[in-house]
Specification:
Elements lengths: L9 H21 L4 H23 L9 H22 L2 H25 L4 H22 L14 H17 L4 H22 L6 H9 L6
Length: 219
C-alpha cells in the first residue's frame, strides 16, 4: 500500500478533466450541437472516466461531482465555443489536448487504485479505464466508432504504457507520486505522438488471423 506521500495533487485530476472536456466541446462544435449539447458533451467527456473510476471500480462518491470539476467543465466549454473553429482545424492541436488529458487521467486512476491498497494489475486496469472512459462515452453518444476499439494509432496502449512506467517508478523505486506521474504522462505523450509520427498501428484481429492462415513459401 502506498499512502501519504503518494497523494497526487487535485490539480492533476482537474487538469485532465479540463483537457478532455475541451475535446468534448470541440467535437460538439464540429458536429453543430447547440449550447446544451456542447455543455453535455464537454461534461461527459471530462468527467466520464472519473465517474467510472470512482463509482464503479473504487466504490466511492465520484469526486468529479464536486463544484470545482463543474467549473472546470464550464471553462472548457467556453474555450471550445470561442475558439472551436480555430482549434478544430489543426488535427495536431486536438490530438495534443486529448493525449495530455489521456496521460494525466491514466496516472490519477492508477494512483488512486494503489493508494487504496489495490495491486498493480488492478491499478493498470483502473488507470487505463480512467483515461479512455470519457472519450469512449463521447464517441458512443456522437455515434462514432469508439477510438479505443478501432485498429489504428496507439491510444489505450499509450495510456497502458504510461501506467506501467508510473507504477514501476512508484512501487519499484518508491519515487514521489508527482515525479512518477510526470514520467508516466511523458511516456503516454511520447507513445501517442510516436504512433502518429512513425505510423505505429494496431491491427484488426480478423486481419491477423487471415495473415496466419496464409500458406508460407514451400507449402
Amino acid at each position: 500500500m502506498l499512502i501519504g506521500q503518494f497523494e497526487l495533487p487535485i490539480a492533476f485530476d482537474l487538469a485532465a478533466t479540463f483537457l478532455l472536456a475541451v475535446t468534448g466541446a470541440l467535437v460538439a462544435m464540429r458536429k453543430g450541437y447547440d449550447f446544451v449539447g456542447v455543455f453535455f458533451l464537454a461534461l461527459i467527456t471530462g468527467t466520464g472516466g472519473g465517474l467510472l473510476r470512482d463509482g464503479l471500480f473504487l466504490q466511492q462518491v465520484p469526486a468529479v461531482l464536486g463544484s470545482p470539476y463543474v467549473i472546470v467543465v464550464v471553462v472548457a466549454m467556453a474555450i471550445g465555443m470561442v475558439f472551436g473553429e480555430r482549434l478544430n482545424r489543426p488535427v495536431m492541436v486536438f490530438m495534443l489536448v486529448d493525449a495530455a488529458g489521456l496521460g494525466i487521467y491514466a496516472m490519477v486512476g492508477a494512483q488512486k487504485a494503489l493508494n487504496l491498497g489495490l495491486g498493480w494489475g488492478a491499478a493498470l486496469l483502473i488507470g487505463v479505464i480512467n483515461a479512455v472512459g470519457g472519450g469512449l462515452v463521447r464517441d458512443v453518444i456522437t455515434r462514432d466508432h469508439p477510438m479505443v476499439f478501432r485498429p489504428g494509432e496507439f491510444y489505450a496502449a499509450a495510456a497502458f504504457m504510461g501506467c506501467v512506467v508510473f507504477i514501476a517508478l512508484a512501487m519499484g523505486l518508491r519515487l514521489p507520486a508527482e515525479t512518477a506521474a510526470l514520467a508516466g504522462i511523458a511516456t503516454t505523450l511520447l507513445v501517442r505522438f510516436g504512433s502518429v509520427r512513425f505510423g505505429w498501428r494496431t491491427r484488426a484481429v480478423q486481419a491477423l488471423i487471415r495473415d496466419d492462415d496464409r500458406p508460407t513459401d514451400g507449402e
